[in-house]
Amino acid sequence: MLTDPELPSGTDRIYAALLEIDPDGTFDRVINLQGDMPTLDPRCLQDVLAPFELPGIDIATLADATDDEAEKNDPNTVKAIISFRSAEIGEALYFTRANSPWGDGPVYHHIGLYAFTRSALDRFAALPPSPLERREKLEQLRALENGMRIGVKLVQAVPFGVDTPADLLKARKILGDG
User: Is this model's pTM higher than 0.85 or not?
Assistant: First the structure.
């Protein structure tokens, strides 16, 4: 479904499509699977729902621990700063393109797969883009800046993301199309 290209984020586009597909609010959970991760493990579609086990979670997403220095310092690799509630599930405190948090230990590579409660998606879409969202170019910061809670589940593999023309060529080779 095509949506208004003037919408400020992918989440706003998902919401616009949802209003067309489900105007009566039949679905209470929505998963935003973007087309830029062609090697995503299908099990991640179930994994992204796990953070809803935590009370009060509005949005859920995934991350993978990394010690790779190139990933840590790559601004195209979004990092999640997470307060863990268990070994695999926590709550996002922030997302950034910078190498964070400081100190010894893994950095968490954010995977751009989201699940929303319907009410969270309604709320998010009603909010204007936030200052940190515009600065970091990360839409999930709009939610955090407005007091929404984002749960994060750790998974063991990051899907290959297509962010540049070179990535597209690599994806075509991985998938056998070029």
Answer: yes
